[in-house]
Design brief:
It is a single chain. This protein is mainly alpha-helical. Helices cover about 75% and strands about 5% of the residues. A two-stranded antiparallel sheet has the order 1-2. Strand 1 (about 60-70) and strand 2 form a beta hairpin. The relative contact order is 0.10.
Amino acid sequence: MTTSTITSVLIWLPIAGALAIWILPLSRYATGSLAVLISLVEVGFWIEQAARFNFTRTGLQFSQRTPWIKDLHVSYHVGEYAFSLWLVGLTVVVMAACIGYGFWVGRDHPRAYFGLMLMLTGATVGVFVAQDLLLFYAFFEAMLIPLYVLIGVWGGANRIGATLKLLIYTMAGSLVMLAAIIVYGLKVGTFDLVDSPPSTSRWLFLGFMLAFAIKAPLFPFHGWLPDSYREAPPEVTAILSGVVAKAGTYGMLRIVLTKFPEPSSYYRTVILALGAAALVYGSVLAFRAADFRGVVAYSSMAQSGLITIGLFSGTNLGYNGAVLQMIAHGLISASLFLIAGAVERRTTTGEFSRLGGMAKGRPALATLLMTVGVISLAVPGSAAFAGEFLILAGAYTRAWWWAAIGATGIVLAAMYVLRLISGVLHDARGPMVQDQALDLRAGELALIVPLVAALLVLSAWPAGISHHSFAGDRPLNAVYEQFR
């Protein structure tokens, strides 16, 4: 396999697997096994790609370009920079764990379920590697289709309302972005992200920024978040928070900052204020949340705000910290939502008032929750600490008060994470916690432990991402020079 095709394989292999699962009359076990196998092969291809990636070389790698609509200069153009390589890795690893979780719990209608999960994998990878704006939009919208069905069919009691909110919010932002894409592409004469020149249009900037602020999400565009995160199956919520939300912050990095440097500078204070509001407001809501998922859901909004502060600080430190925090938080939130699913399966609830005392007799559950919780606390030596420190250093370079607000959010994070750990593991045992409730089983450990192990490796070597995300890449050099 040539290096120019491996990126396309990462997109189309899971989509082809989805079609095969939908067409072939496989048994429940065979369907789940095939989906897990495809997801693991996807991880293997990414590991091969990462091993081949030249981090000392500038520009796009593993690129493939084929004309699509010649009259409009639209092409099937895919490829990766170092920062997108890490996000593709986050996608395939988290998706493999979540597909395995669905297999473990035995989801109903397995052919439909696993086909949708694989389709979501391919579409999300496509978002992170597309180098043509119309192709990016196609994948950006394609993510919504499986998410809508996965929540609407396999979600909780209020799933219909949650899916409608998700659809309305994301479609509104996406339609505005489509209009911005069309105007931008026709104005500059190409839709290619690598070749197209930057624009000074503030209206087009706002069109893109609205879609990405909804997807991230940022305050006050987060109205879809509470219901979707609570009603979706745990593994789908893990994908929403750990991977899909990163498409919003990635869009800010890859499109907004590189193609609209002047509007980005003009609106910098406004966007930083939105990021700060999301950080503080999300942290306060997380501290007040009455259930496991609520804490993790609102903390995800807070982290999106922190990442946005890093991106719009306009500094190298902020960019590096933002990418590192995207990966670290993606692994943290995915792990926590899968642990939340394990707790809910044993107790039928995630409400703190009905939980407590689960550390007794469940060492695996307690160890994993404590480990992920401590990392999310951003204690020195953790991946979250490295990412947040870089973001705060970049924000301080811009203005000291942005760093002060960021530090306040981090203090609040310590409060809600400790409350989460205490509410599940150490408070007085609630009415839904029984002595005979089992510890995490081998199958669950096989899904969660690799995510936690990846977090520990990243904590030991955060420079693997922070030092190898932008090394000389042309699009980000433009940001460095024009966004100061």
